Hints:
Layout lengths: L1 H22 L6 H30 L5 E8 L6 E9 L2 E7 L2 H8 L3 E8 L3 E12 L5 E12 L4 E10 L4 E9 L1
Parallel strand pairs: 1-7
Antiparallel strand pairs: 1-4, 2-3, 2-5, 5-6, 7-8
Helix pairs in contact: 1-2
Amino acid sequence: MKAVIRNLTLLAGLGISFVLSAASTGAGQAEGLDDQVQNLKNEVLELNRELFLLEEELLFPANTQVSVFVSMDIGEYFSLDSVQIKLDGKEVSNYLYTEREVAAMYRGGVHRLFLGNLKTGSHQLVAIFTGTGPHGRDYRRGATLDFEKNIGTKFVELQISDRQIKQQPEFLVREWE
């Protein structure tokens, strides 16, 4: 697979050097060369896209892939500042949110916080949420999920929602089917 990526990179480099040499030829052939240059640019862009997809497949194969997403609703009792994720006791992500990102999640957006690889077996995910809670106080809460990683992609959602009865935020960690 590395050889394929190396060959695609070499082809992209050759395409770029051909584009540069073709652009430096006489003005009489400019119209024909413009078309060739445009075609080569398009081919280089397509090769770059294919290279990116191959790289992602190599780095995150579907059999070992785990993705963690963050979602929110309402937000009367909690204003999110950051989320920290630990997988099997090791910190894998620590993300500080902007006001625009939080506003987007209030409108139904979902943020992919982590994409990585895990071997099959039992694992533990700990999420620590930091922000401002009821009455403007600093708020730091954690949620834990013990899960089995099987062959195939695993999706986990960290959901922040308001609990009207207790007038407190609720932090849920759940697996997507």
